[in-house]
Amino acid sequence: MQSTTVVKDPVCGMDIELATAARQTEHDGQTYHFCSSMCKEKFDQNPAQYLGKSAGKPKSGHGCCG
To answer: Would the pLDDT of 4 be above 50?
Structure first.
């Protein structure tokens, strides 16, 4: 049995598997993972907007990100 690590996209709140995350970025020495390039771009433009608070309810699919 192979274990998977699930992380939360800080922008949309979607749960994603670490191994299949579409994008990732580093900010202040921490690596963040994203479900899509759109979420990564939003985070990169204003990381403070997405840090220090919960991203909300998890979404399913990529409909939240375009």
So the answer is: yes
Rounded to two decimals, the pTM is: 0.74
Question: Phi, psi (5° rounding) for residue 16?
Answer: -135, 150
Cα separation, 1 vs 52, whole angstroms: 34
Look up residue 53 and give its two tokens. Answer: 């608070």
C-alpha 29, offset from chain centre: 16
Per-position DSSP letters for 20-63, written without gaps between them: G-SEEEEETTEEEEESSHHHHHHHHH-HHHHSSS---SPP-TTT
CB burial class (10 A; 0-12, 13-18, 19+) of residue 13?
Answer: middle
Sequence-distant (6+) residues with CB within 8 A of 22 are 16, 34, 35, 36, 37, 40
